[in-house]
Amino acid sequence: MSKRKEPSHPELHHPSTKRAKDVDAHTPYDQLATCLASQQSPGETRNILHWFRSKDLRIHDNRGLNAAATFAKESHAPLLCAYLNCPAEFRNHGTSPARTDFICENLGLTKSELEDLDIPLVFLEASERADLVPTIVKFIRGNNISHVFANYEYEVDELRRDIRILEEVNNASSDSDSHCAGFHVSLHHDQTVMEPGTMLTGAGKPMKIFTPYHKAWLAEVKANPGLLDTVPPPSKNSPKAKKALQSFFGSQVPTPPEETQFSCEQERSQIRKLWPPGHHAAIQRLNEFLNDKLADYAVTRSNPAKNSTSRLSAYLSAGVISVREVLSEVRKHNSGSADFSSRGADAGLSGWVRELVFRELYRQTTMTTPHTAMNLPQNLKFDFVQWENDEEGYDRWENGTLGVPFVDAGMRQIKAEAYMHNRLRMNVSSYLYCNLLVDYRRGERYFAETLIDWDLNNNTQGWEPSYTVFNPVSQAEKNDPGGEYIRQWIPELRNVKGKAVFDPYHRLDKKEFDKLGYPEPYVDWHETKQRALERFKSNMKDAEP
Ligand SMILES: Cc1cc2nc3c(=O)[nH]c(=O)nc-3n(C[C@H](O)[C@H](O)[C@H](O)COP(=O)(O)OP(=O)(O)OC[C@H]3O[C@@H](n4cnc5c(N)ncnc54)[C@H](O)[C@@H]3O)c2cc1C
């Protein structure tokens, strides 16, 4: 059996594959479900809280918030909201300055929108992760809150945090000497159209393979278009409730911790211009995409120079817009039909919905295969690969100086825009762990530290290692046929004519190449492809996860 090498970088730490299998067998989600079901009623209704997390930063079509507001209205109880800021959480996930800033900006806008409804949004602070549960529990108990609403987060750490809160509630209510006022927690599925964990194979197991999942998802939505229905924002708190909650208004919106701030003001303003915060900006972006780009999406989506995709990922990952809002608009462009299959919709529309279905499946995967959120590959055999400690290769990858134009262009885009086109994400990831044989987790972490749209589900599934080795020259020739994307991001190659731009070292004579000031390829693609395939095969042959 192959032995796993000790990781030399902190981002590579993870539990053993045996532990991973244990966690999969007893999922935190199932444990949380048990805790939720064993709650007792708090007896009386006092203040009602919606607890925002960093994935539902909007008041429109927010399932948890809507449930809280409906309950508050029916009970004539005051509604307040909270957000628990934890700098250590940003550090732990390696959240990028762009995403941290985007979250803080959206929190500020959400606070104003809520205040217009006389609902306060209180910002709580937990400097360390260990303080998360005590901080929120103290706030709930100290402020006469009887009912807490929130939306599910499907990642292991977040589910475990919620379990600990529920254990506090359940232990206190079973302790007859306890003087703590009890509270009740309701969690809602908000991130997807189809509740994660409900799409099952014939054998009753959660689906993991995209094609059958996509087919079943399309059939389900066509049969139940009500799945796309949205819920309204909360209505105003009554004057009495507003008065009772007076001390909660005016809470200070958190600012990004020092270590996740932009390097300079110019960088901040450039990123903010590319990604303006707010629900209104998201809706505008959606409509522009649907009106101007959707029809051609099937033919243009893989061409990064066309900039023809929606660029909604940052908004979807922070929950600034909901997927149901998005698909309700898409439906209008499909003559009101919720049949998004290739038979029921144009190629552009059905192709775009297909991408959103990947997003849905990946949430089901995180929830039902929790080890994928523990820094381990879905196919655990890949944990037995002996990766190379190629520091120079890694640095050149990160800085876009590998001498491979398509890969370098992608890496320069992510640095400049906190975003990278999907075709490039596929190419640069393959190059890192196949051609350089650098542990894919370093790249996964770099994406988290750089992307504005970082999303654990999409990122870990996107980085899932496989035997497919992308050829960046033929990929560029196919997807960037005019070389415009390469020329946009690599100024050294701006004046290179014709097809030489895809592989200047091999296609120009030496004198011409030397004048460019662009590096020659760091490794030979064909040789390193062979090396990777042999390494994977030999290391995984006897692997017993
Ligand atoms: C290695 C790698 C890492 C990735 N990391 C992330 C990440 O951290 N966050 C993230 O949101 N996406 C990630 N993706 C998926 C995809 O690249 C981005 O969602 C997409 O490029 C965002 O651009 P867009 O909004 O213009 O997409 P569009 O083409 O307009 O698609 C619409 C929406 O569908 C979803 N989507 C599109 N493609 C995918 C996909 N392959 N998987 C899952 N959902 C998808 C996104 O929410 C996207 O906003 C990753 C892909 C790879 C290969």
Automatic annotation (TrEMBL):
Record-listed FAD binding positions: 297, 309-313, 352, 355-362, 453-455
Keyword Flavoprotein among UniProt keywords: yes
Key words, A-Z: FAD, Flavoprotein
Superkingdom of the organism of origin: Eukaryota
PROSITE patterns (UniProt xref): PHR_CRY_ALPHA_BETA
GO CC terms, sorted: cytoplasm; nucleus
Necessary cofactors: FAD
GO molecular function: deoxyribodipyrimidine photo-lyase activity; DNA binding; FAD binding
Protein family: Belongs to the DNA photolyase class-1 family.
Name of the protein: Photolyase/cryptochrome alpha/beta domain-containing protein
Organism: Capronia coronata CBS 617.96
